[in-house]
Design goal:
Length: 350
Amino acid sequence: MKHILVTGGAGFIGSHVVRRFVRKYPEYRIVNLDALTYAGNLENLSDIEGASNYTFVKGDITDYPTVLECICRFGIDTILHLAAESHVDRSIRDPFVFARTNVLGTLSLLEAARKSWKEDYSGKLFYHISTDEVYGSLLPGEAAFSETTKYDPHSPYSASKASSDHFVRAFHDTYGLPVIITNCSNNYGPNQFPEKLIPLFIHHIVHRRPLPVYGRGENVRDWLYVEDHARAIDRIAHRGTSGETYNIGGRNEWTNIELVRLLIRITDRLLHRDQGESLSLIRFVPDRACHDLRYAIDSSKVERELGWFPSVTFEQGLERTVQWYLDHPGWLNRVTSGQYREYYRNTYGE
Ligand code: NAD
Ligand code: DAU
């Protein structure tokens, strides 16, 4: 029996992780601690909210007493820490909340784990889900990021995630806290908030709105289907080695403009529009400040040591993703109208 605390379980990746663990491990208790910021949407978990091994707790990770109480009350032995402010553009507009949640929130969780586990660390794990953005930016042709690549964050988002990674390692080195960090590349899939490139552009293609491509669309990202990320987290949480870092990626690099063209092809086909009709929606707009040119992950360590590989090809994953958004216009409408925020009150009566 494991008692697992997932932070940020109402968000995009967190909801896939929670669903996977609740369904696959009926003998575990899964506690989802989430503050329900703009990015948290409990509707993402409506299909498992009645499961007997699942509990939702509304709470902020920066609130140390709440976190401590949660770990003690549920006898938590494993923490899968995903709660974060996650959007680079928002971090450029409002960096403070990124330091608060990503740095102080992670510190509060680490300290609560250390205090509640009272240095009896057998069977315990603090698993921090982090990003490849901590490594900075690659030039075309440069070797992909490995676990030993020097940290070189540029945006307030990546600086806050780099800082939280350092705190996690410091708790391992200083107090012996059992920790694992994974640094993952760009995720895509169902339930992603439509501020990120792929869901935003699907939404705009459907409504024939302009597609704002930053700069010339030459930036490169390494895309991974979200359920492959959840599979990796499952594998690493069970078989990873404490104190280690694992990079997770899709070996799937695309320039933004190539990706947008592929997305248009798939979406136009699924909408029975003329092929390429939506290409005219592309607009090149001023670039993101200090826009990292290229991310690429070398995931050979997790492949070699733990036998994890991505299972979904990009064409399959993108088609599934577009189909999911087309099949769930209600989800998108409630998110864009703000109505999704009422879900918690209507369901939990608070
Ligand atoms: P998201 O923005 O979709 O979800 C974040 C969740 O955290 C939301 O449910 C939100 O309510 C919750 N949250 C935010 N602040 C909180 C606080 N103070 N207390 C409690 N809960 C809070 O994020 P995501 O895209 O699912 O990313 C999840 C994690 O994975 C993040 O740590 C992110 O840095 C990391 N990551 C994301 C990607 C990606 O491509 N999306 C890639 C690599 C790593
Ligand atoms: O690499 C992992 C990271 O991937 C995660 O840590 C972040 O949480 C996640 O948000 C993501 O960061 P990006 O900045 O790469 O994702 P985003 O979807 O915002 O942008 C992807 C690329 O598309 C990037 O080069 C910027 C560009 N873009 C984005 C938007 C929203 C555009 O050209 N136009 C847009 O409107």
